[in-house]
Amino acid sequence: MKDWRIVWALAVSMLAPVPAACIRDADLIIHHAKIYTSDKSNLRASALAVKDRLIMKIGTDRVVLALKGPKTRVIDARGKVLVPGLVDNHAHPLFVGAFQKATVDIFELKTKQDVIQNLAAFLQEHPEMPYLIGFSWHYQSPITVSDLDAVSREIPIVIWAYDAEGGSANSLALQLLLEDPGEYRKLGGQYNEQGRPTGQFIYFHQFNPFKSFKPWFVAQRRWEKVMELALAGMDEMLTEALRNGVTTVNDVQIYPELMPLILEFKARGGFEKIRVRGSWNVSESCLDDEQAFIDGLEAWIKAGQEHSDEHLILGNAVKMYMDGGAGTYTAWLSESYADRPGYTSGPLWDVQKFKRVMEIFDRYDLQVQTHACGDAAVHAVIDGYAHVHRPQGPNLRHRIEHAEFFMPGDMQRMAALEIYAAMMPTHFFGDETVKRTLGKKRIPEMMPWKTMAKAGIHVSFGSDRCISNPWSPFAGILVANRRIFYDLLTNPGKHNAISVEDALYYYTYGSAEALCMEDMVGSLAVGKRADMVILTVDGLDDLVSMWTIMRTFFDYDYGVNFVEKTFVDGVAVFERE
Q1: Between 410 and which of 173, 201, 312, 406 could a Cys-Cys bridge form, CB atoms 3.0 to 4.6 Å apart?
Q2: Of 155, 154, 148, 149, whose CA–CA distance to 134 is shortest?
Q3: 3.40.50.970, 3.90.1170.50, 3.10.310.70, 3.90.1150.10: CATH of 96-221
Q4: Structural domain boundaries in the chain
Q5: pLDDT tens digit string along 64-113?
Q6: Cβ–Cβ under 8 Å, residues 152 and 242
């Protein structure tokens, strides 16, 4: 009997209320900081407290330190800047990460011979490589099938231009791409005067090695190696994001063939330290078999319902392309290219088909993200979004990716329709090709951030992270604030430069809104996830100093040194050594 009473007493004591002091004790306190919250109702603070992964309190040191308990971890920020975890509205960490390990960065190579030598050296060092991609060629000279065959004819090899539009293939890759003639045409595959495929491409943004090369990988018993490389590459790219203070990212190019890799990566805990939202890539030829397309769309939505959580969000967004880029003369302009009189390029989508596919997306309440660089492309996308706009319906926050140029009146239309602009400020930096194709008169009009904001457009920032295009949120902030062009001598369109605070806002709350995630991340406010970054600087102005300009564009450092600690859910996921 006594034993029973003892057990009962112990059980009752375990159910007794926890002392109130313990309940209010913070898990983490950061104080003595210069906090920029991106919360317009409370922009500045010096301390914050975290409890159960959420921000518990934000304010002065005195108020927040009152929440310190015996088990609270306390960090003295030593007067450094603390900002919300950066949110990248447009990148490719899963898709590009999946082939990163099979890629050679050729961004800084000057000649075709340099490219061939570097690819050959990489293969000699990695003879087990099942395929090879040379990424970020600058169009200095055409790279041909025979050039790449000199590297190897035993595995598929492709070159991908720095703007993701141009491409080249060796004979094996060309053979595999020609097995589906529709695929070759979709990639903008070129033909010579005799009608033979050249292995040159002008719409290579749609290239997907996990679709085009998979039958060969399987037949050659190399698919397991491809998967192993893909999972390692995804992990490497997301780890790099955290080193750059990026805690949430939208991968805007998810293909069905990538889904097994993504789910395997999730099963291995790959998303536990970061948040990734995916957008399903939709081809311009999807309506050729409308029912098959709808079946695939419903499978994407179902995948979201079954696999989404706070760290991986699938099934609620899609991505399309209306045009390409100026480097390959595929950005659709309303007036001629500067060096090609009479040529404006054209749309990837038939205008009526674009409206039809928008009707399908609208039926499922999906957010649509459409790549449009040229002003004519932006105009056509606005028309397509307007076609399905429901003033009393849900605000799906359709987006225009890049939105570099505008026809008169289109900014006002974007604002009225609540269309979001997902922009990559580092693209403004440009190069000689951009200067030649767009011309001195048009370049100052590119990416008019301040004018867009004044028109009422929701602006957000991202990196377009690929292989040579780094995460670089701080380079993006610098370019947006200084309107720096590649020659470092001119600042085209200086009247559209924005403040550091606005640039940071677009890289945090603005992008969180563009991802429909602002209730969770994007600003530091009570009840939101404790995703945040302590920087190495004492003030935001240090992010755009002359020292920063020299370090960023002469050393190509791109701001890694600005991140001291990155936190996700109040847990440090990156700490500078």
Answers
A1: 406
A2: 148
A3: 3.10.310.70
A4: 2-81, 87-93+228-575, 96-221
A5: 999 999 999 999 999 999 999 999 999 999 999 999 999 999 988 889 99
A6: no
